[in-house]
Specification:
4-stranded antiparallel beta sheet; 90 residues; elongated; two-stranded antiparallel sheet; mainly beta
């Protein structure tokens, strides 16, 4: 029997993510910087044999999705000056 970790949106009927306790269940598709409050998602355990009933739902602690990151500069050049350099990108 393999135990699965299921993640639901609060009051949702179908899991939005499944996985294992060790690897986790990845919630995807949220916009960068989204603040998710405590309990907006709920987690359960189930087994893939159907031998046991699914566990009660447990609230998932809130989190904030990482913000977008600027693209790395490319074609970086430097031109020496009398007291340092001028750096350009692009």
């Amino acid at each position: 029997m393999a135990t699965k970790l299921n993640v639901y949106e609060k009051d949702g009927k179908d899991p939005v993510a499944t996985g294992t306790d060790e690897e986790g269940a990845a919630i995807k598709g949220l916009a960068a910087g989204t603040v998710v409050p405590d309990g907006n998602y709920e987690a359960t355990h189930s087994d893939d044999t159907g031998e046991k009933l699914e566990s009660n739902r447990v609230p998932v602690p809130g989190f904030t999705v990482n913000k977008d990151k600027e693209a790395d500069p490319d074609n970086v050049t430097s031109t020496p000056t009398d007291d340092g350099a001028t750096v350009k990108a692009g």
